[in-house]
Amino acid sequence: MNITIKTQRLILVGAFGLLLSLGTQAASINYVLDQTNIETVMPDGHPYVTVTIQDGMTFGTDTNAIKFTVDAIDSAFTLAGVSKQSNFGIRDFGFNLAAGAPTVTDSNIVGPAGWVGNIIPPNNQLDGFGRFVGDIKGTGTNRFDPLVFWITGVVGDTIASYAAPSTNGNGGVAGQGNAWFAANIGGFTIASSTITSGYFGGGNGTTPPPIAPVPLPAALWLFISALTGGYFSARKKRAITI
After folding, report:
1. Distance from C-alpha of 152 to C-alpha of 147, rounded to nearest angstrom
2. What number of other Cβ atoms are within 10 A of residue 149's Cβ?
3. Is it the case that residue 27 has pLDDT exceeding 60?
4. Is the entire prediction scored with pTM above 0.70?
5. Could you give the angle at which helices 218-237 and 5-25 cross, rounded to 10 degrees?
6. Where do the structural domains in the chain lie, given as residue ranges?
7. Alpha-helical segments (H) within 122-217
8. What is the pLDDT of residues 119-176, one digit of tens each?
9. What is the pLDDT of residues 53-94, one digit of tens each?
10. Alpha helix (H) ranges present in 166-217?
């Protein structure tokens, strides 16, 4: 059949619209938490937890939701003398809001069943790592590894909205300093120790991290290239036959 230049132009415009949409909506960044408040048995400087933040995600009717995935690194909890128990998992997690970030309320934080999100107040203290703007926690043995939760219904937030340190980091039992994120993990044992849980923090920095765009599929680039080439060829021929 014949495709007119006008029709092909409309297809090309639509393809570039899709390109721009995919290129700007989704981004992802990873942090490593390598500090603990139980240094005598699990020293600082070892990667214990990863925090992945993604924006531009779909959650219900929200197409620009934020997704947090907090994952305890298996190798860190299976070292010599360290063993995970059946109730191992994350039971509390704190995060912050950067200056100028959109307002987040308790109801914007959606986690697993039985988990509750809190924006200060309350104190949101995570033992030694300071006071966090946001917190999500479970109750009792309601623990997850990985922990996945969402921030939804907030207009204009991105992954950079959550790149900021805690405050009052010199307080608490351990006085670990300020951290961008902290997680309380329980359900593990350590040889020659009665410790079965600990707080793990980190992700520190002084400026928001760079946005890491999600790469576009190679097939989409080929499709757009083919359309572009065909369009300019058709400009000469006035029509193409396929």
Report:
1. 16
2. 20
3. yes
4. yes
5. 160
6. 1-26+215-242, 27-212
7. none
8. 998 889 888 888 999 999 988 778 999 999 999 999 999 999 998 999 886 644 456 7
9. 999 999 999 999 999 999 999 999 988 789 999 999 999 999
10. none
DSSP-derived letter for residue 167 is: B
Rounded Cα distance, 131 and 110, in Å: 21
- Mean pLDDT value across the chain: 80
Could you tell me which of 101, 102, 92, 100 has the C-alpha nearest to residue 72?
A: 92
CA distances to 19, 81, 232, 233 from 222, in Å: 12, 52, 16, 16
The pair phi, psi for residue 214, each rounded to 5°, is -75, 125
What are the DSSP calls for 110-121, one per residue? E-STT-EEEESS
Using CA atoms, how far apart are residues 203 and 35, in angstroms rounded to an integer?
Answer: 9
Task: Note whether 97 and 162 are within 8 A (CB).
Answer: yes
Residue listed under structure tokens 């007119």: 4
SS3 66: strand
For residue 142, what pLDDT is reported? 87
Q: How far apart are CA 72 and CA 65, in angstroms?
A: 23
Q: 């040889």: which residue's tokens?
A: 191
Number of Cβ within a 10 Å radius of residue 43: 11
User: How remote is the C-alpha of 199 from its chain's centroid?
Assistant: 19
Helix, strand, coil percentages in the chain from 3-state DSSP, rounded to 5: 20, 35, 40
For residues 205 and 26, what is the distance between their CA atoms, to the nearest angstrom?
22
CA-CA distance, 183 to 164, in Å (whole number)? 16
